[in-house]
Amino acid sequence: MSTPGHATSVPDSRVAILAHEKFPDRSKTANGVLRYADREVVAVLDRNRAGERVADHLPAVQDAPIVDSFAAAREHDAVGGIDELLIGIAPIGGGFDESWRPDVRSAIRAGCDVTSGLHYFLGDDEEFAELAAEHDVRLHDVRRPPEDVGVADGRAGEVDAEVVLTVGTDCSVGKMTTTMELAAAAETAGIDTAVVPTGQTGIVIEGWGTPVDRVVSDFTAGAVEEMVLAVGDDHDLVLVEGQGSVVHPAYSAVTCGILHGAQPDALVLCHAHGREAVHGYEATPLPPVGAFVDRYESLAAPVHETEVVAGSLNTRGVGDDAAAREAVTQFEAAVDAPAADPLRFGTDELLEAVR
Amino acid sequence: MSTPGHATSVPDSRVAILAHEKFPDRSKTANGVLRYADREVVAVLDRNRAGERVADHLPAVQDAPIVDSFAAAREHDAVGGIDELLIGIAPIGGGFDESWRPDVRSAIRAGCDVTSGLHYFLGDDEEFAELAAEHDVRLHDVRRPPEDVGVADGRAGEVDAEVVLTVGTDCSVGKMTTTMELAAAAETAGIDTAVVPTGQTGIVIEGWGTPVDRVVSDFTAGAVEEMVLAVGDDHDLVLVEGQGSVVHPAYSAVTCGILHGAQPDALVLCHAHGREAVHGYEATPLPPVGAFVDRYESLAAPVHETEVVAGSLNTRGVGDDAAAREAVTQFEAAVDAPAADPLRFGTDELLEAVR
Q: Model-level pTM?
């Protein structure tokens, strides 16, 4: 069974990442690809930092030169083969910045595929569509919902793999990061692992997947189920990237559909230390962290029994490591399971809990 | 603020309902319009029952002649003005049956709008689209998702009206029926009431609304919020038609989005007596009815506190009234709230509980 949804680049392809004026602090997708993707990054495009290197800013990821344009990336590239240009940033609103047009144009003319998670679809841009046809390259708009998803059959629980889903107390608490860190650690430990990406950054990193938040709401669970079934019998561990929160005023539908569609055997509850209200909905206070454990478990149980086996705490807002360790200890007590901050303290506790 | 989503016919318009070969046992939408809609039904089209009357089959709804074609409906109609043809049946798969084409064609030529809840969109049919333009009539495909819905702001709880949502233990347990019966009883009792329709039958009955199960999953809550905000300050009671079940293997996303988007003040829990497994997912047993009360309340609470104030039991499968009354009494105990079977025993208990 081939993987559903988008299929962008293949492993080991060579990519350039566009991140103009946003690297590294506002380039989530670029950073995710640098950190997690199984591809060689030839260069990062940021006209404000041309001449610097990725390693000057992000020490723990693959290094690459920073250049001011796609043309410069080709000049820098001794091997001479760039397979793909990734749009590694997403402005508020998801639009296409016209200042990027020359880079996209050059990439297509050089025979590169272009992958984008923007709301603005490159494939609907007349110039790009024509150029792409002329040069026989593909434009991957990973946020475009696939047309062939359908209603869930309730069968994801049947796969051979242990299926683990990251769930959260809110948006932007670390579900994607936790998923990717766990995947890397599991692979290092020799566990045959697959990630099921559900959002545009995850899809760009993994090179395949369905943007679950963009499918028709009746097909939310079906879109996730299809992905779990596609990889679940060929791996020992499947890590499903969760979205939102089950008590989010706007996005709970997506969360609930993923929970029931993936039929996970275990959950990792993700939280950002100090988050007290729903991000962007400050009038809505978050319930106590511990209450999320029961809420996720009892909501999942009638469809597929599952358990919060670990917690993942984002302590970025905590100044020193001692205070961060104390925060993790408190979080462990609240969720009544082993916990860690994967970026700060590694994933040992989490991997032990889910394997 | 005008009502969002589709706006089909206006109250007091005169309609014909197409229900060929399906009336009355497999014509859910036709029956709903006959029973609940604020419109005069000129005729029902069913070529298998031409010459009979609606009252021969459905005693408690408005009567109308049954005819074999739209042309015959016009001949029968002494007043001479039919405003709209409704497609009142939905075959499995939601396709358009070519045997209906002459009726739709005749209706358009006669200057009638045509309203359909099919998956097949009449507006995408070349012949119908051309004819409709020529005769200046509108084709309402109520299942087509509107393009202008967006992310919820979390504001539905601010409206002046008491907002009541029907929730369920499963699909097809009576949420739409309970909503409509309650609305009729409330209007009779002099309560200024609005229904927020979320599915195609409700939309056809009410003449407006957004098919929440067809919107992009990120906008599920937003679609419902928009409707509640549109009517919530102009009425004293708003009844939101629920969908699915929060522990449904395929459709829980829609249910959860409606629960958080509508921010209801009260819930009516609907159940079909004897239902023991999820309909169509027989390997998934339903949890005990009482467990749904806590599940819905605790899921809703962080966004907007609410309470199951009444239960609605569908006892259609129960032979005699005494046994049905006993079933309702047991259901009352299970949900710890007043309960009724609205179609069998009326809505007094429910209306008392929600007003």
A: 0.94
